[in-house]
C-alpha cells in the first residue's frame, strides 16, 4: 500500500504579535522532535512530513524555498512540475535559476531533511553575451535585449499550469527580465496549500517552452519521452505544431549534443500516450525490438466503445497501474472490487472479438526481460 497522503503545513519563523520571534520556540520543537526545519526559517510538523507522499514533500520543499525568499526562478525539473507536467523520476533537488555565478551549485538546508537546492546559471540564447547580460542588469532593465526574451510578452501555447489541477494559471512577468532569465509568476494557489500564511509567497518559474528546451535534452531518453508526451498532448489540444509553440525559444537550445538528444526524443514522443506508464511502455517496447503499436484504438463491442492502450495485429496490450485499483474510490468513485470487476468485463468484451490481451505492470517495465518474455509469448511482432 502507498503511504497515506498527509497534509503538510509550512510555518515561517517571524515576529509574533508580542514582538517575540517564533524561531526560538520552533527550534525548541525541532530539538523535541515534533517539528522539522526543512529550509532556513521554515518549519513543518514531523509526523505530517513523514507520512506524506514523496511528491507532496517535493512540492512542499519548493513552497519552502519560495517562503524563505530565495532569490531566483524555479527551473528545469522543478519548473516542469510547477507547470503540471509528469516526471518519471522525482528530482533529487529543487532547481532554482540565479543571476549570481558565485551561488551556483548545491546548497543544503540546515536540517538536511528537505530537498537541497541546486542553483543554475541562466542559459543565454545565441548572439547574447554575458557582457550584455551584465549591462542589462546594471541598467536595471532589459531594454536592448527585450526582443530576445519571448517570455516577457507572451507565454505562448505552452502556458503555465500547476501541480494541482485547481490551481490558476500564471501571468507573464513584464518587469524587463534580462535575456536568459525569462520568468513567469504563478499565482500562489499552486503552492498555497502548503502554508497557512501565503502572504508574500511569490512563485517565479521559467516559461514552459524554456524549461522544456533546457531540461529535456539533459534527461535520459525514457524520462524525456514521458515529459514530451504530456507536453505534445497540451500542444495538440491547442491545435498547433511543436515548432509553432517553441519558435521563439530555439536560440536557447545550444550545442549539437543537446540538439540531437532533443530531436531524438521529440520524434519518438506521441501525444496519444495517456499516462506515464504508457509512455514508458512505448520506450521499453522499442528498446526490446518489438514493432511500434497503434495507440488508443477504439473498439466497438455489442454497442459499447472500448479504448485500448496498445494494439498490434490481433493483439491488445494494456498497461496496468496499481492506482486504478488502489485509488479507485478517489479517482472514479467506486470500490477496488468494483473497479476489478469492470476491468474483467471489459477484457472479456475485447477477447470476444478474437483478440488476445497481454497485460503488464510497473514491475515489468522495471525488469524489461520479463516484459520481453511476456510480449514474445503472446506473439507481439518484432520490428
From TrEMBL:
Lineage: Bacteria, Bacillati, Actinomycetota, Actinomycetes, Micrococcales
Region (Disordered) location: 145-179
Protein's recorded name: Transcriptional regulator, AbiEi antitoxin, Type IV TA system
Biased composition (Low complexity): 160-172
Top-level taxon in the UniProt lineage: Bacteria
Amino acid at each position: 500500500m502507498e503511504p497515506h497522503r498527509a497534509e503538510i503545513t509550512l510555518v515561517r519563523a517571524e515576529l509574533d504579535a508580542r514582538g517575540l520571534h517564533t524561531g526560538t520556540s520552533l527550534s525548541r520543537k525541532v530539538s523535541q522532535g515534533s517539528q522539522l526545519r526543512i529550509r532556513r526559517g521554515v518549519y513543518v510538523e514531523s509526523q505530517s512530513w513523514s507520512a506524506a507522499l514523496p511528491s507532496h514533500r517535493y512540492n512542499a520543499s519548493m513552497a519552502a524555498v519560495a517562503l524563505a525568499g530565495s532569490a531566483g526562478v524555479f527551473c528545469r525539473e522543478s519548473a516542469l512540475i510547477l507547470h503540471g507536467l509528469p516526471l518519471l523520476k522525482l528530482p533529487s533537488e529543487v532547481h532554482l535559476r540565479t543571476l549570481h555565478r558565485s551561488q551556483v551549485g548545491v546548497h543544503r538546508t540546515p536540517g538536511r531533511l528537505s530537498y537541497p537546492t541546486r542553483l543554475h546559471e541562466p542559459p543565454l540564447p545565441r548572439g547574447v553575451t554575458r557582457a550584455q547580460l551584465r549591462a542589462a542588469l546594471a541598467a536595471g532593465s532589459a531594454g536592448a535585449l527585450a526582443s530576445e526574451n519571448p517570455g516577457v510578452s507572451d507565454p505562448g501555447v505552452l502556458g503555465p499550469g500547476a501541480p494541482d489541477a485547481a490551481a490558476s494559471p500564471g501571468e507573464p512577468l513584464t518587469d524587463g527580465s534580462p535575456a536568459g532569465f525569462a520568468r513567469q509568476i504563478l499565482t500562489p494557489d499552486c503552492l498555497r496549500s502548503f502554508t497557512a500564511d501565503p502572504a508574500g509567497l511569490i512563485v517565479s518559474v521559467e516559461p514552459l517552452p524554456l524549461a522544456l528546451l533546457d531540461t529535456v535534452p539533459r534527461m535520459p531518453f525514457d524520462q524525456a519521452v514521458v515529459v514530451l508526451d504530456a507536453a505534445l498532448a497540451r500542444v495538440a489540444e491547442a491545435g498547433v505544431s511543436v515548432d509553432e509553440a517553441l519558435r521563439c525559444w530555439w536560440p536557447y537550445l545550444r550545442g549539437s549534443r543537446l540538439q540531437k538528444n532533443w530531436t531524438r526524443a521529440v520524434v519518438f514522443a506521441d501525444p496519444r500516450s495517456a499516462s506515464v506508464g504508457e509512455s514508458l511502455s512505448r520506450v521499453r517496447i522499442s528498446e526490446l525490438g518489438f514493432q511500434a503499436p497503434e495507440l488508443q484504438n477504439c473498439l466497438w463491442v455489442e454497442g459499447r466503445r472500448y479504448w485500448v492502450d496498445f494494439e498490434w495485429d490481433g493483439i491488445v496490450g494494456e498497461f496496468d497501474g496499481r492506482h486504478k485499483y488502489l485509488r479507485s474510490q478517489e479517482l472514479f468513485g467506486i470500490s477496488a472490487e468494483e473497479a476489478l470487476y469492470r476491468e474483467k468485463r471489459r477484457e472479456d468484451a475485447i477477447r470476444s472479438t478474437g483478440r488476445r490481451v497481454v497485460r503488464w505492470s510497473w514491475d515489468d517495465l522495471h525488469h524489461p526481460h520479463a516484459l520481453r518474455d511476456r510480449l514474445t509469448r503472446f506473439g507481439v511482432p518484432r520490428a
